[in-house]
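Re: weekly structure request thread

Next one in the queue (337 aa):
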Amino acid sequence: HRVSVLCWDRHQEYLEAHQVELDGVNLVRFPIKSTLGSGLKQLPAYWNYSQACGAWMKTHPVDAIHAHDLDGMLVAVRQRQRQVPITFDMHEYFEYTRKVTDLTRPLVRWLVNRMTAKANAIVYVHDIQLEHLSKAAQAKAIFIPNYPDEASYLPSTKVPSKRLRVGYIGKIRQFEQLKNLIEATADLPIDLHFHGDGIHYQHVLDVAKAYPHVTMTGRFSSAEVGDLYRHIDLLYVAYDTKVVQYRRVEPVKFYEAVLTQTPILVEGTMDVARWAIDAGFGFAIDGTSVTSIHQVISDLVNHPQKLQHAQAVLAPLSQRYRWSDVVSRLDALYPFS
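Done, posted below.
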């Protein structure tokens, strides 16, 4: 297979490398300036990105399109040539709104229904995504969950440390939860490690500058992620569960924690919290409460055997939820010789 990924370089960071080969994949970056999270203000830039994708595909014919989420699917349907087959890869739960009015919910649902009808195949990552799909759409849906590629994470043996290390690894989107973690641990003998960029990176960094126990490293590559996990003892998995998607689905970090045998501090109102707590590798917190976070982490500092038990629980579970177990399902989508 020859794979090309058409990227929207919103920050125009790759002007000198707008087309590169990485791990056998052709990356094509369109430097169209836009601010992530700015809502409808992104529409002109999104239109230009769609046009750029269409122009590229006219000169580089493709045999199939794998469209990421609704915004990618809209571009694929509009710009495809010769009615090539499209896979709608749904990594979002579309039955929620954020800062927009509820009037947008029917529009989003209408668009999703239109796109699933036009898709030749649908990839979904959680059963809740099927709840609002037609029977015809469900019949062409394939379950390929967000399991981590073990090659990037193993071996998972922790690098020893005298201090407890709590880590957050991923997009920095949850400002309140991360700010509360920083403030809750200021008087505890632990270290916080935040790895990743995102729309709230600078805001969290501004808070962290006043706290010497916090380290923030910014963006990381897939080649680095295994080492990041080897240097933390406890993973912080706290989201704003007023957003239905965050409350109901299983984040990638959840599976990464299992694979790397890293116990988790988990938002107690998340659906995955009950399983993690009952299994013995999760510790429930309220990410909106400094007191809650402080009490739980303080208890783990004073009773390290609890963390050791959680790590032992994860040892047999770490053999599950691996990308190698599900990646072959893509063969049904792309049976090209």
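The two ends are 8 Å apart (CA to CA). The first strand starts at residue 4 and ends at 8.
Next request, please.
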